[in-house]
Amino acid sequence: MSKSAAKDAQEFLQKEYQGVLSTHSQKFAGYPFGSVAPYCLDASGLPIILISRIAQHTHNLTADPRCSLLIGARAAEDVQNAGRLTLLADAAPVAAAEVDAVAARYYRFFPESADYHRVHDFDFWRLTPVAWRYIAGFGAIHWLEADSVAQANPFAGEAEQGMLTHMNSDHQAALAHYQQVAQLPAGAVSLVGLDPAGMHLRIGAAIHRLPFAAHCDTPLAVRQQLVSMARSADWA
């Protein structure tokens, strides 16, 4: 297994936030059933999806939890030569004790779905990897082991929420600077995710990933990265 390919796949998984979920059709036995699925990553770095109990893919997963999630590069001009990542996984509903923490993070990324798990018939599901297939471009094809791509986020929970609240409340100028330097679209910007490798900014309905120059093991290291990026004009 290529460590560099695993690292690239990890960054790809963190950068994107939607894919095509394929399940085993119960209505048409033997045929795969694909549907669009937004996702965010939990504290273990695993994809979390929010799906309705009456949806076809939910019926399929309830009968057979084996599935795949195809993640492609957004707005790629040449889809054959663009990066893509396929996760082969076992899906399972998130345990009741974890739902609040998972929901808090998911709804920061997708606020238009806020409280669907409370006021509608939606549930959170976690995709646990069996294997990964990463294609970095034409001819750059890698099978990666189940535990080689997902990166745990030790800040998920109160630490992450505290840093996000502070940045969004007190440092809008820094967020606008990140937006400008990275040449992101114009519009109101908010910080919705932090992890050891980077940050997620939300502008409109889109999520944008900005990586850190160095891996951050502590909230202090994250703060130092954010300050450094706010003072620099050429990190992007």
Task: Outline the structure in words.
Helices cover about 30% and strands about 35% of the residues. The protein has about 240 residues and is of the alpha+beta class. The protein has two domains: about 5-145, Roll (Pnp Oxidase, Chain A), CATH 2.30.110.10; about 160-230, PNP-oxidase-like (Split barrel-like, Alpha-Beta Barrel). The strands form two sheets. Strands 1, 2, 3, 4, 5, 6, 7 and 8 form an eight-stranded antiparallel sheet that branches. The protein has a three-stranded antiparallel sheet with strand order 9-10-11, with helices on both faces. The two termini are about 30 Å apart. The mean pLDDT is about 95.
List the helices and strands and how they pair.
Elements: H1 3-15, E1 18-24, E2 32-38, E3 40-41, E4 47-52, H2 56-63, E5 66-72, E6 84-93, H3 99-109, H4 116-119, E7 122-137, E8 140-145, H5 158-170, H6 172-181, E9 189-195, E10 198-203, E11 206-211, H7 219-231
Helix pairs in contact: 5-6, 6-7
